[in-house]
Amino acid sequence: MSHPGRAGRTRRRRVAQWVARYLPLEVLGTIAAVAGSWAAYEASGSIVVAAVAGTVAEGVGYYALVVARGIRGHLASLRVARVRRRSGRAALAVALTLRGMLAEFGPAEVLDTFVARPALLIAAAAWLGPNPTAWLVGKLAADVVFYVVAIVSFELGRRVILPDGRTDATAGRRTRTTPSAVPDLEGALR
User: Fold this and answer.
1) d(C-alpha 86, C-alpha 181), whole Å
2) For 127-159, b where at least 16 C-beta lie within 10 A, e where not — what string?
3) Which pLDDT tens digit goes with each residue over 61-104?
4) How far is C-alpha 39 from the geometric centre of its chain's CA atoms?
5) Cα separation of 100 and 139, whole Å?
């Protein structure tokens, strides 16, 4: 029989891991979206151009950190370190990162892009009127849907997503004690 406090500690630890994993992505994506929208509007004077630029910038800002973390973690993994050639290690790290991104974010992106975000933005504008508060409410509601799907995908796919299939918080940290066979690319990703 498990101790009742353990379940609570485990739940809090998982939530802390999710916050540590996703909050920096959300912050970078939001900063990129605002900067991209503002720059595009200043350059074009078009709200449509600004919206498209902000959307693209948000994706770039968000996923740039995902890619950097993934490649860095895989370069430090035992699986990639076994590859003899530097170019082979780099290619394998990139391939494993892309596979992990698809497993973690693919279902969430499809649902978010084609169903949840448009529907929730429209619903919020219909309910609150077309104003900044409605757009924020719609965005936050869509983010909830996105993160529920992404977190479920992450939890179910930890073996595929995290370097060496680790399931703990040390996934991105070096675990080998032998001299590094990881290419110089790793330093550039820090």
Assistant:
1) 8
2) eeeeeeebeebbbebbbebbbebbbebbeebbe
3) 999 999 999 999 999 999 999 999 999 999 999 999 999 999 99
4) 24
5) 25
- HEC profile for 47-76? HHHHHHHHHHHHHHHHHHHHHHHHHHHHHC
Structure tokens at 61: 């800002």
CA distances to 50, 73, 77, 94, 183 from 88, rounded to whole Å, are 40, 16, 14, 10, 10
Structure tokens at 174: 């070096």
Q: How far apart are CA 170 and CA 186, in angstroms?
A: 17
* pTM of full prediction above 0.85: no
**Inter-residue contact 55 to 33 (CB < 8 Å):** yes
Dist. CA 187–CA 127, nearest whole Å: 49
